[in-house]
Amino acid sequence: MIIIRNGTLVTEEGLIRADLALDQGKIAKIGEIPAAEGDEVADAEGCLVYPGFIDGHTHLDLPVAGTVTADDFESGTRGAVAGGTTSIVDFATQYKGDTVLNALETWKKKAEGKAHANYAFHMAVCDWNEETKAQMPALREAGVTSIKVYMAYDTALTDAQILEVLQEVKKFGGVTGCHCENGGLVTELQKEQLKAGHTGTDAHPLSRPAEVEAEAVNRFCYLGRLADAPINIVHLSTKLGLQEILKAKESGQTIYVESCPQYMLFDDSVYSLPDFEGAKYVCSPPLRKQEDVEALKEAVLKGEIDTIATDHCSFRFDTQKCAGKDDFTKIPNGAPGIEHRPAVFMKIFGDQLKPEDYMRLLSTNPAKVFGMYPRKGCLKEGSDADVTVWDPAVKWTISAKNQHQNVDYTPFEGLEVTGRPRYVFVNGELAAKDGEPTERHAGRYVKR
Asked: 214-263 pLDDT, tens per residue?
């Protein structure tokens, strides 16, 4: 048995000074716990003891844009536990001609035996047909409670298909998320930029203006309303998109909202950096105007955003990103963040948010939205022994030189942060200590 002693537990009932015992992969006891012979004691003096953080939006070992993301499940989850994240929800992707059940097995094999953190899967449905529809109940039985659809890229579905997906997912009590960008408009605006001779990274945000997101958010909200089904807006990046969500919520719709730290820290001025440095920030949706940054931060403080994820989709700068040096549309879209989400998010908000708020946004709400609560996302007896012991006093600087993600840069290079995990337990096993991962691959598939 492992006893976490002298820490302050962060719970839904508030902050509690108590010991926490981990045994056989579960939280065995909370209270005053004497150590017996053979027990291990982890000293959490001065620390906040959180339920393990959950990243509800990652892309590991993903074939995309003629390449494959730099992080697989080994390196990606190694970075995750180093930063305090004990579970991820990645995107198994059904490509054209594939089935959703085969896609799930493909992604499970990518992760099996490699993962330092637990892993679950959303299913990205990219080929909606009668066979896909027929397999949805079996997909639910396999533990997938969340589906993703796209309104952009070659993975996009039509509005009619998205409506059908919403109706089917509603039948088994799941939630449908959407990448909300008007793909047709993006394609045309990219052509306009290239025709005008704008090939650099500063053309990226111009080809995907806020209106492109807001229109798609509006459309997805109305589709959700037609289906009378809950929806999840992923990686919200704009004030306009937020306004559409709030308007839809007024009609009583169930809408979950996810955003990411990068949209609350950077603005689109980074795309004008010299020496192609702007490519490091090319992600979709792109980084926005300062008014969008401020609107999202205010939305977090008002409780209008439910979950904070990363959309971790990493590519090496020295090789993969450089494919678009002469044409911004060929830069692989995505940025790394799986390792630094908790520290960066806490840097942004500091004492404006309480520990209970950080727990809600980084752990409890992702667990609830994606069907893992109370197994995960809380400190309760009988819950899984996924625990992040956070030392709020450690000061350190984020750098590619000290990260564990398999990528040669971080968009947060040089950011001075306060707070780092002293211990990270995954299924009751020590997965990281003082920001350094152990060699244990303790992660398991989470059947939700």
From this structure: 999 999 999 999 999 999 999 999 999 999 999 999 999 999 999 999 99
Q: Which residues contact 88 (CB under 8 A, 6 or more apart)?
A: 54, 55, 56, 58, 60, 76, 77, 80, 117, 118, 119, 120, 338
Burial environment of residue 38 by CB neighbours within 10 A (0 to 12, 13 to 18, 19 or more): exposed
Q: Please state, in angstroms and rounded to a whole number, the distance separating the CA atoms of residues 270 and 138.
A: 45
Q: What is the pLDDT of residues 334-343, one digit of tens each?
A: 999 999 999 9
| Angle between helix 130-141 and helix 100-111 axes, rounded to 10 deg | 40
3-state secondary structure of 11: strand
CA 16 to chain centre: 28
Tokens coding 225: 């309303």
- 280-300, pLDDT tens digit by residue? 999 999 999 999 999 999 999
Say whether 389 sits in a helix, a strand or coil.
Answer: strand
Task: Check residue 283 and report its DSSP letter.
Answer: -
C-alpha distances out from residue 429 to 21, 65, 258, Å = 12, 37, 29
